[in-house]
Amino acid sequence: MMLKNENIQIRDPFVFTNKKDGKYYLFGSTDKNIWGPGTGFDVYVGEDLENWDGPYPVFRPDEDFYSEENFWAPEVHEYNGRYFMFATFFRKDNQHRGTGILVSDSLMGPFKPHSAGPVTPKNWFSLDGTLFIDEEGLPWMVFCHEWVQVEDGEICAVRLSEDLKESVGEPIVLFRASEAPWPTSFKHKTRKSPNNYVTDGTFMFRASNGELLMLWASFVNNVYAQGISRSSSGEITGPWIHDEKPIYHDDGGHGMVFKTFEGNLMLTLHSPNKTPLERPIFIPIEEKDGKIQVVD
Predict the structure, then answer these.
(1) What is the pTM of this model?
(2) Which Pfam families did the record assign (predicted)?
């Protein structure tokens, strides 16, 4: 069945541009209620970012899978000839969220568990892990240490084994949400601290001038927004400098950047940030000397 963007409920959209068949593969948090029991992940397939076939199931957990709820933010990366899905899951064993890694030989799945469980620290509330390959060809995962545990949400990086099955060493804190000038404290109905700053949805992007950019989401006056930070060293370890204002602040975020088949840059994110109204939004952008701006 062909669907338009306005008919697709999805959070955390992630587009894989597949040059092998000339099609876009749209992944994301696709459960009707992502805050509860998890069904799995679906993919939509299209050629123009407006009309989509699907949904097609790409991941459904077995009975012995380590999570039953909060199936969030799947990203799919091609690495060493296979497709690896980084996704957030709520662990059954200790009721903490973390990012696990799945694998498939096809973008259409089925994706199966690759890591033994989440590769983020076991006793952390973590989410939204993304793959980053450094200048030496070594894999890292950049992820968020959740504000629900640390109040001032952190963005961290950890080395991965070359087979992507586990983390190597301890995570490095790259920065905290309050260090950027644009987020404001998140006012939560049960967590009353004035120091709640959210970090969500990391995505790494190498600019044309070689500068390393990071997209991430937070809140401005309790409205979901998308921001950009940049590494002054060009390396994942930073130090990180933050843009003064978010690039999108109209109740949308958890974005990523990809190139269309025409060679144009596109930002995709979900908006509004309210279940079940979330839809994929596609925003043409331009990048010049590391600076990103929306195309009017």
Answers:
(1) 0.97
(2) Glyco_hydro_43
